[in-house]
Each structure stands twice: as C-alpha cells, then as structure tokens.
Write a structure and sequence with these properties.
single chain, 483 residues, alpha/beta, Arc Repressor Mutant, subunit A, Aspartate Aminotransferase, domain 1, Aspartate Aminotransferase, domain 2, 3 domains, three-stranded antiparallel sheet, 15 strands, 14% strand
C-alpha cells in the first residue's frame, strides 16, 4: 500500500493523516480491509507500535471499524477518486505504420458490432456456444493445468497440439500435413499479420477478393501492401480476371467465401494453383469455418490440392469453439516455415501453453468431434428456420444467397439501392431489430442493398420472431422517402 508520510510530527500522527487522506479521497473505499498491523509496519519500515497507535486513533475518530476475528475495515465512505485532468493531446503519427493505422482502422466503428438497444439482432460473426462445451472445456483446462510445464512454450506450438491438428486436418479437410509444418497462432488475424511480414515488403501487390473480410483487408493495408481486388461470383474468385503482372500474394476464402458464401469450384481451384505456380506467388487460404456445410459433402481445402507448396493455409478454433480461445494454426510451406516460426517468436514468444495442452487433449479424446456434430445439427436447424421464415414472410421482397454453409446468410433487398438499404437498417433499429449491411466488405459499393443475417447465436424461436419483425419493417418502411 502506498502511504506517503509528510515528515511533520510523530510517525503515528503522519500515518494517521496519510490514511485519513486515502479514505477521504476514496483511494481506500468503504468496506476495504486495512492491512494487518505487522505487514503494514514492514512495508513502511516503522515499528508495529506506531501502526497500532495510528489504527487506534482512526477507530476513535470513526474512520475504522474492527471486526472480531476478521480484521479492521474502512468505516466511512469518502469522495470518489478524481483522476488527474489532462488536456487531450493529439500528436502527429510517429511512423509510416502509425499513419496507415489511422488511415485504415477505426476501432470505434468496426462492422458487425451488436446494435445498441436491439431486442433481436441478426449479428454475424458470433458463433453458436454449446452449453455442454463449457463443462467439457473446464475439464480439459483443469487436466492441462496440472500437467503443463510452467516455462515458456515453444514458439511453434506444443508438439501434442500440432500432432492433433494434423490428424484433424487429414480427417476433416483433406490436408495432409506434418507436425513440423504446423505453427500455432492466436487466430486468423495473427496468421495474416505474420504472413505479411514474411512474404511482403511495403508496396508489394496483393490480390484480395471483392468483396472481402474487412479485418484481413485492413491488416494488409496497414502493413503497406497495395491491394488488387478481384471479383467473386457463384464459383468463387474469378481466376480469369487475375492480373497479368503477378502479385506477391493472393488471399482467398475458397471453402466459404466471406461474405458471399460462394464455394470455389474445382476448376477455379486448379486454375488458381496453376497461376501461383507459374508466377511464383503465394496463396493465403483462410479456412475460417469450413467445418460447417449442411447440404453437401465438405470440399477438400485448396491446400490439399497444392503439389507445388505455394499455399499458406490457416484455420481457427475461435469460430467452432468460442472466440475468447484465441487459438488457430498455419500449415506452412516448407520454404516459409522457419521464417513464420521466427516471426511468431518475435510477436509473442508463443501462444499460451495451458490452453494449447487443453485443446490438444480435447482434440485427441474425441471431444472436439462430438462438439462439431452437435453444433452442425443445431446450426442446420437455425439456418433452416431462418430460410423458411424469410421465404414465408418476406417473399418477393428479398433475394437470398444460400451458401449451404457457415453461420450467416446474405440477403438482398430486391429493387432497393444502397441508400435505401442503409435507411432500412436505421428504420429496423428503431423497431428494435439489429441488421447489418454488406457494404463495409466492398471496395466499390454494390448496385443493390445487401444484408448479412447471422443466425449462430440465436435460438429457433428468436430467429422466427426476428424474421417476423423484419417482414413487418419491410412492409412499414417508407421507401419513397429515400432517393
């Protein structure tokens, strides 16, 4: 405890004044336990009798209350602590990196945040949380805490987790990797950041999908890359529109394009791999939720078709388990593996070991597979509820892009432009419904109004009620008032 003594008069008097000031200014709030006299005497370098005398005076004046067998407590409320007021200071960016941070990222206005005050919200990017997962994960963590070594983990990741990831990828995604190829990271965002540092110089060109995931786009822009958007259609990235002058890196989400939901066709996958091989460029494959397909057999990952080892494959457990886990992985091409491991070491020395060990155990003992099966069944029920409700209630007013995968749908407002779409989102919010525009994911705004409707975090009953409110808003909206 920090207690300055003013040097005036007896030590116990100085201590009384310091403790009173701490109580009156709120630094010692009402009900807080005072330190034991022996401990405080040791901390201040005074005799215990000095502290005893000070405590006795504080009790006499009503500042302290003694509780038998428990200790002494602050007995009266003081004024709340007022932090020192300093005028806000806005300095010029101190580096090129800081200039790009300010240009491309606005932390206060990121897409996808929950709409304030919404009774029902189609918030996307929020995964389904299985209640059974909580107890299973608690057991895995408890087991890992006992057996995990307390020293720094290896930067590449715990061997047990890398082995478990390889087995999982071979079974689920058709990727045959070796444990030495795996680099454990905190998620997709760190994976793209490390990749940018390893393969890009400032000013290098990167092909990115149009539309695309904003966080990957911003990470590349902040790194200093020059982005070349290439359109996406129903078969994924339009490989016939790849630039003649090859980029250094191509970023794709082939198994479930974000945000459109398109699945890249086999022909385009082969065309993309051939392009990368011929032009000596790298592919960053973001397989963020390839586990969840509802009406079709999951396709093998692009990395599983890659014979030339040009694909930097990344996946995350945040979407299939829970976002706070912050664990994912990179399957590193042999030529980049050591550089990626070194970049990870520089970034944070390695991901938390106890969580890695718990996840390895969860994967190895079948808990993860059981979780995936339960989650996929529940998500299909919720997706079907949303599709059925929209088709029944919204009818001809919307067009639905059904991707047969993931945890969101893209819904287009038929015959409505972008301005009308933004006005409709505001109108729905006034009726307690949270809606989300597709606009932030485009470099060039689309010609029509599009929405991302997430269903992962909503029950079937909530989905049906939210869809009803959605339809009511469509009918009540004054479309003619918006140009």
């Amino acid at each position: 405890m920090y207690l300055p003594l003013d040097g005036r008069g007896p030590l116990h008097g100085q201590l009384v004044r310091s403790l009173k000031d701490a109580v009156m200014t709120g630094r010692l709030p009402s009900g807080l336990r005072f330190p034991p006299t022996r401990l405080l005497a040791q901390q201040l370098g005074v005799s215990r009798n000095t502290v005893l005398a000070a405590y006795e005076q504080l009790r006499a004046e009503g500042f302290m209350q003694a509780r038998v067998g428990s200790g002494s407590y602050v007995a009266m409320p003081g004024a709340p602590v007022q932090p020192r007021s300093e005028p806000p200071q806005r300095v010029a960016p101190q580096s090129a990196y800081a200039r790009r941070l300010r240009r491309y990222h606005d932390h206060a206005h990121m897409p996808g945040r929950r709409v304030p005050g919404a009774l029902h919200s189609f918030q996307y990017g929020v995964p389904f949380t299985n209640p059974l997962l909580t107890s299973a994960w608690a057991r895995a963590l408890s087991h890992a805490a006992v057996y995990t070594q307390p020293h720094y983990p290896t930067a590449q990741g715990l061997p047990a987790l890398r082995v478990a990831v390889c087995e999982y990828l071979s079974l689920r995604r058709g990727v045959h990797a070796r444990p030495e190829d795996i680099v454990i990271v905190t998620g997709t965002q760190q994976a793209v950041s490390l990749t940018a540092r390893v393969v890009l110089d400032e000013g290098d060109e990167v092909v990115i999908e149009e539309p695309q995931y904003f966080a990957v786009r911003e990470a590349l822009q902040i790194h200093g890359a020059r982005l070349l958007p290439v359109p996406v259609d129903g078969e994924g990235l339009c490989t016939d529109l790849l630039p003649e002058r090859p980029p250094r890196l191509i970023c794709v989400t082939p198994s479930h394009q974000f945000p459109t939901g398109a699945l890249m066709s086999l022909a385009r996958r082969r065309a993309l791999l051939d392009y990368a091989c011929r032009h000596d460029c790298w592919i960053f494959e973001d397989d963020y939720d390839g586990e969840f397909r509802y009406d079709a057999q999951p396709h093998a990952a692009l990395c599983g078709l890659d014979d030339s080892r040009r694909v930097i494959y990344t996946g995350t457990f945040s979407k299939v388990l829970f976002p706070s886990l912050r664990l994912g992985y990179i399957v590193a091409p042999p030529g980049l593996r050591d550089d990626l491991i070194s970049a990870k070491w520089v970034d944070d020395f390695g991901s938390p070991a106890i969580e890695q060990a718990a996840l390895a155990h969860f994967l190895a003992d079948g808990g993860f597979e059981r979780h995936l099966r339960r989650t996929a069944k529940t998500l299909k029920q919720r997706r079907d509820a949303l599709l059925g409700s929209l088709r029944r209630l919204a009818g001809d007013a919307v067009d639905i892009d059904d991707s047969h995968a993931g945890m969101h749908l893209v819904v287009w407002l038929r015959d409505r432009n972008v301005a009308q779409g933004e006005a409709f989102i505001a109108f729905a919010q006034s009726r307690g419904l949270g809606l989300y525009s597709i606009l932030p994911y485009y470099f060039e705004p689309p010609a029509r109004a599009g929405l991302l409707l997430g269903f992962g975090a909503m029950s079937v009953a909530e989905i049906e009620e939210a869809a009803r409110v959605f339809a009511v808003c469509l009918g009540e909206m004054d479309w003619g008032s918006v140009g």
